[in-house]
């Protein structure tokens, strides 16, 4: 049985419900003035390069509040600079063989609310150093002076240690999470199991103003269905804010690394604390 892409996964329309602050049932009839109970329909479909500006803005918005961004980027408050940083990273996703980018958008307006990059990694590619080159690894060579290269390389080395758990396994995988995409993780490869195939979620974001509405969960379900249909495991590297989400979807912790942001802040004790990253896997039941 092959593991090619199935056209059934190219497009799907899903209702996404806005969480209500009221104690009501899902069968309650909403009043014209209570828009919190009205379902908002989003379509999930393949994205194209024409979507890059919208995808980059979603990426920038989703990660604008992440603490490590303050150390990875010297000008993390510069909206234009961060937009172009994420646009360049996402452009590299479209160049990566085996990666599909899915977008969640409003069918009426076409406005993109979130996206997920789902990568199919083969055992051969996992063990091939040329194929393992990632968008971040390529970009390190041409980082702008606004990027803290020392932070990127130091934290990136720890991420690579987490990736080693996947090496040699054909799979679907995803390494950046809804809570952070700082520029030092990409689709990778890891070494716990025999030579097979896996899938990875190599980027995943929901616009800051659209979070907590179930959009991320629907995107994740869409990607995991592809892995289930292909009978393949799924890997990812999760950051703190989305760890519980992945646990709910059946992922298990394999390993973790801690980044002491207080140390990077020269121990000014501003409450940054420890930022924990997890290697996680979801295997077929």
From TrEMBL:
Gene3D superfamilies given in the database record: 3.40.630.30
GO molecular function: acyltransferase activity, transferring groups other than amino-acyl groups
Domain of life: Eukaryota
Domain N-acetyltransferase: 138-271
PANTHER family associated with the record: GNAT FAMILY ACETYLTRANSFERASE (PTHR42791), N-ACETYLTRANSFERASE DOMAIN-CONTAINING PROTEIN (PTHR42791:SF2)
Name assigned to this protein: N-acetyltransferase domain-containing protein
Organism: Xylaria flabelliformis
């Amino acid at each position: 049985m092959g593991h090619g892409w199935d056209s059934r996964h190219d497009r799907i329309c899903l209702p996404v419900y806005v969480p209500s602050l009221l104690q009501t049932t899902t069968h309650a009839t909403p009043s014209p003035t209570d828009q919190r109970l009205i379902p908002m329909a989003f379509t999930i479909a393949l994205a194209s390069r024409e979507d890059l500006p919208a995808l980059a803005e979603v990426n920038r918005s989703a990660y604008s509040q992440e603490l490590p961004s303050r150390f990875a980027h010297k000008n993390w408050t510069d909206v234009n600079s961060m937009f172009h940083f994420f646009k360049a990273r996402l452009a590299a996703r479209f160049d990566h063989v085996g990666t599909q980018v899915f977008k969640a958008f409003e069918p009426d307006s076409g406005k993109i609310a979130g996206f997920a990059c789902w990568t199919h990694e083969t055992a051969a590619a996992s063990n091939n150093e040329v194929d393992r080159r990632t968008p971040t690894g390529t970009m390190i060579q041409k980082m702008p002076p606004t990027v803290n290269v020392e932070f990127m390389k130091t934290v990136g080395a720890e991420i690579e240690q987490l990736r080693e758990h996947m090496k040699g396994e054909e799979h679907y995988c995803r390494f950046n999470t809804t809570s952070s995409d700082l520029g030092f993780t990409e689709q990778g490869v890891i070494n716990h199991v025999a030579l097979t195939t896996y899938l990875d979620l190599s980027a995943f974001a929901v616009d800051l103003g659209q979070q907590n509405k179930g959009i991320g969960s629907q995107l994740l379900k869409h990607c995991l269905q592809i892995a289930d249909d292909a009978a393949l495991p799924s890997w990812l590297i999760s950051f703190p804010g989305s760890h519980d989400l992945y646990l709910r979807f059946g992922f298990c912790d394999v390993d973790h690394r801690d980044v002491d942001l207080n140390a990077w802040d020269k121990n000014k004790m501003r409450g940054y604390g420890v930022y924990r990253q997890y290697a996680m896997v979801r295997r077929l039941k």
